[in-house]
Amino acid sequence: MNRSILIRNCRLLRAxxxxxxxxxxxxxxxxxxxxxxxxxxxxxxxSFTPPPPPPPSQQPQxxxxxxxxxxxKYTKYAFRATYLSxxxxxxxxxxxxxxxxxxxxxxxxxxxTSVGSKKKTLLIxxxxxxxxxxxxxxxxxxxxxxxxxxxxYFLFTPLLPSVPTGTIDLKSIVDxxxxxxxxxxxxxxxxxxxxxxxxxxxxxxxxxxxxxxxTPGIVQTTPDDIRKTLDYDYLVIAVGAETNTFNTPGVKExxxxxxxxxxxxxxxxxxxxxxxxxxxLPLGSEERNRLMTFTVVGGGxxxxxxxxxxxxxxxxxxxxxxPGIEKETTVHLIExxxxxxxxxxxxLIAYSEYVFKxxxxxxxxxxMVQKVDNKNVYAKVKQPNGEFKEIVLPYGVLVWATGNGPRxxxxxxxxxxxxxxxxxxxxLVDEFLKLEGTDGVFALGDCTFTKHPPTAQVAHxxxxxxxxxxxxxxxVENFEYKIAQEDASPDRDTNKxxxxxxxxxxTKQNLVPFVYTHMGALAYVGSERAVADLVWGDWSQISTGxxxxxxxxxxxxxxxxxxxxxxxxxxxDWVKISIFGRDxxxx
Length: 587
Prior knowledge:
Elements: H1 2-16, H2 20-37, H3 64-101, E1 121-125, H4 129-137, E2 144-148, E3 153-155, E4 174-176, H5 177-182, E5 188-191, E6 194-199, E7 204-208, E8 210-212, E9 219-221, E10 227-231, E11 234-237, E12 242-243, H6 251-254, H7 261-278, H8 286-291, E13 293-297, H9 301-321, H10 325-328, E14 330-334, H11 346-358, E15 361-364, E16 367-372, E17 376-382, E18 388-394, E19 397-400, E20 404-405, H12 408-416, E21 441-443, H13 456-488, H14 494-508, E22 520-526, E23 529-536, E24 540-546, H15 547-560, H16 564-580
Helix pairs in contact: 1-2, 4-13, 13-14
């Protein structure tokens, strides 16, 4: 039907002519004609257009890949930081060693200062913590510095208990005084002698040549008994103290100490000699058990660390060379107070006692030694009911590591000064460490009696304080000399004098009293465990113990060393024993 109509319309258009409109109509009709001519699909046509097919599904990404990528990135940065740290550390170590081995040229001693005034003489007695800290921190070009001591080296005493067992070599904790003095700005004169008399009124010190040897034998003197008298303007007494025996009978004759380098050598020789001698006796005999008993009197850090070091030495090294020796040997620690490490936190005290029990160190507290003979310690033990029980403790090696007592020089000096006659435990000093009753005399360290504990930490801070004090005093004296010169000048300048006086007043503000800052306390308790009672200012205190504290203990002691040489040698000793162990030689 549609087709016939289209054909008719086309004929009419041809006959009548085709306008533009007709042409468009014709074109449309032809299109419809062609579409109508196409065969019709029997299926109904739907107007719904199906959606495009979905894209091929992507494989789910592994969620661990970003984590692995970040881990690799952080590892790369960590390795780079490690390489950089090692590079900088080696560089700093090399620079420190070079600086120490190649010091700058010193300013020689002279009679005049840089401003023309008389250069004063500073006389230092001693080479311990206080004296050496003062010497290292002082601008020695301001004074003519003289150091007098029978010991021509500085001894790093915190690691002295490690020497008898061979954990640390003695030379690793010894630093010659002349080497230390060579590193100062100004020339320093050292005299190996012992002060025998101090005349504070005339400012003179009498010294006698005496040499303290590292080998046992205590003191070596010259036959000619060389003596000399030294003048001083300022005197610093830092002779330390000797071990206090509390007048216990037999201690001086039969016990060893742990105060000097020779003491450590003597203790090691006795220990190894007794062990070797015991091998000749029957197993389990009374005499053999006595020889294999190592006894320490004194529960402070020195006594505790010595007992712990000896026990480690026996269990870890000698047991390999003397099979079964760890079961035969007894390490005994005696303390008169109710507990050891009395200045530490109570929790650390309990932890130390727990470690002692675990590694089989016999601990006797509330035990007061009455006398000592060549084989036994006679003591009284305070019972819980308050009564005392007498006991006898056999020993092979006895080490007396109790408190400090004044040296004979200090005793003699106390009797000469009225303000010091009441001093029984050490010299009395004021807040500026000036010796009471004297002019120009200072004292520090264990030879003084103050409110601070007699430790290396206190003496070290006192030495640094005195170095600043002397430098300030030198500046004030130089300004005063300039004022005196200006006053005597014909062209006296009042304005210049006023300026100098103002500078003096400002400088004197630095003359402040000594203030001790307690940093804490450390102690090794055995089996690679240590305790630390640390303080930061007035607001924080940390008490910790264990293997990690042992690593901190080692790090802290290395940091405390005064020379890079000692730091390197101590670390190398620890590496050496970790590889080869400790030997069993007597020396």
